[in-house]
Amino acid sequence: MPAIAGDREAVKRIAYEFVERKANEGVIYVEVRYSPHLLANSKVEPIPWNQKEGDLTPDDVVHLVNEGLKLGEEKFGIKARSILCCMRHMPSWSAEVVELCKKYRNDSVVAIDLAGDELINTYNCPGHQKAYEEAVRCGIHRTVHAGEIGPPDVIKEAVHLLKAERIGHGYHVLEDEDLYKKLLEEKMHFEVCPWSSYLTGACKVPFNNHPAIRFRKDGANYSLNTDDPLIFGSTIHTDYKIAQESMGFDEAEFKRVNINAAKSSFLPEKEKKELLYKLYDAYGMVKSTEF
Hints:
Layout: H1 8-24, E1 29-34, H2 36-39, H3 58-76, E2 79-87, H4 94-103, E3 109-115, H5 126-138, E4 141-146, H6 152-161, E5 166-169, H7 177-185, E6 189-192, H8 194-199, H9 211-217, E7 222-224, H10 229-232, H11 236-247, H12 251-263, H13 269-282
Parallel strand pairs: 1-2, 2-3, 3-4, 4-5, 5-6, 6-7
Helix pairs in contact: 1-3, 4-5, 12-13
C-alpha cells in the first residue's frame, strides 16, 4: 500500500480494475472493503515518510474509489459497492471512518467494518465503540472481522457491543455451542473465505474439517467469498473449487449460499429485491416472494 497511497490515479484505477476482475469472474454484485486511511498519505501514521503537502486525505480516497467503482460499473455492467474499514490498532481513525460512511452512504458506500488484530480488546478501544454507536444511530450497516483467529469472545463483542449484522469469517464460533446456537437462531450471516482461512492458518487442513461443513449441515446463513484476492492470488473460483472438491458442495448449496449473500447484502431493499430476482431467474427457481 505505501507504493499506492497518495497516488490519485492509482487509487481510482485499482477500484476500476477491481470491478473489471469481478465482472470477468461472473460476479454480478460485489461489496469491496478497504481502509481509506491506508490508501491516504495525509495524517496517516504508518507511512510518515510518504507525506507531503497536498497529499490525499481519507475523504479524497473514498471519493476516488467511488469514481473508479462507478466507471467500472458503467463499463462492465455489474454493481459494486464499498465498505469502509476501521482498524483495530488505530481507534483514533474510527470517528472519521463513520463520518465518511455517513457522507457517502448514497454514493457507493454501504457499511462500516472493523478489521485487524482480533486480540486487541474492543472494550478497551472507546473509539471503535463510539463509531459503531454512531453507525447504529444513523442506520449505517455494520460488519466486523471476528472469530477468524480470535476466540468466540471476539464474536460476542462484535454482536453485543458493536451490534454487527454480519461476521467476517467467524470460524471459532463453533468453540462456543451456546453462542453458535443463538446466532443460528438469529440468522447471523458469516462471510466465509476457505482459501484465505487456509493461508492465514485460521483453519487447519484438511478442508473436509472446515467450519463451512458444519455451517452447511446446520443450514446456517453464510456465503463464500474471496479475501485479499491480489495477495492470495485467488478468484471466487478458487474458493468455489475448494468447496466443491474438498467440502462436497453441490450446485444446490452454491445457489443457497449466493441467495444467502444477496439476502444479507447491504443494498437498499429495492435493489436487494432486484438482485434476488436476477438470481432466482438465473437459477430457474420459482420466483419467491420471500425476499
